[in-house]
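Section handout 9: paired folding examples.
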Amino acid sequence: MSYLSSKINGLIIELGTHHGTGTLALSTNKNNTIISYDIKSVFGLSSTPENVELRIGNILNNTDQLNQLLEAELIFMDTAHEGDFEQSIFDHLKNNNYNKMLLLDDIFWSHGMIKFWENIDITKYDITDVGHGDPNDTHGPAGNVPGTGLVDF
């Protein structure tokens, strides 16, 4: 994620901050602005980098924030991994002619995520081997390597 951040100069939106490790990786390029969302405050960051804004809440409940996704050079989604939320975000992006990149964590985590990933009908890349591909890491409910996907809108 640090590498991707180094290739971007603009807005990056992260959906699913959790403890903030992805946030920190994305914030390494100080030319980027990172907006990171989580539904509750579980941030593990002892201090927030100056180019990061943390927001609490479900982005689907705020039209202005949802539409801000369309301005992002990169969207990183690491949420509940059930497929429904991910599908809602994907549909919003596709229906509004988003034309950048969506990075998805844990594309093989659950049966819902597998179905969501398989049904993406635009250019996508399984980058598990460079993202989340430890063959010994099969901790998801589907018993698979969690996986990483990149969708090129």
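Moving on to protein 2 of 2.
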Amino acid sequence: PPKSEKIWWEKINEKERKKAIRSAITATILQEIVAERGHLIPRNYPFVLDAKFESLNKTKQVLAAFEKLDLSKELARVEGKKVRAGKGKSRGRKYKKKRGPLIVVSKTGKLSKAVANLPGIDVVEVKNLNTEVLAPGAKAGRLTLWTAPAINILEKENLFK
């Protein structure tokens, strides 16, 4: 029978982990890789969001900001869900959902609550970045929106060097 003491995670070397995060961050900046992954990116991608973006606290405000950033096609792309092929349907994994934009912020406040009802969008703090959110499905190049304070923290603290 299944044992409760089984270890479900895999250990990874520290240098290897940091190198994977750095390469995933680099892939989020390159338009070709992001478009190849299936994201519908605007012409002026990549760009840095203002610090005021972190203070948005309503879903309506976030949607209006995405409209101004020309990300409405991307939001429409991630809305649907698809029935999974295979036996996963009967094992509690019936639907597959697409991953949309990732918003990297300096500290999660009410923005994460405002984005909670939007499908496919994730909000993550800089210090909590990992390859799981930057490259879901082990495929690098997720559409990532960085705020200015998040980039300042990333440069100042050298988190992944």
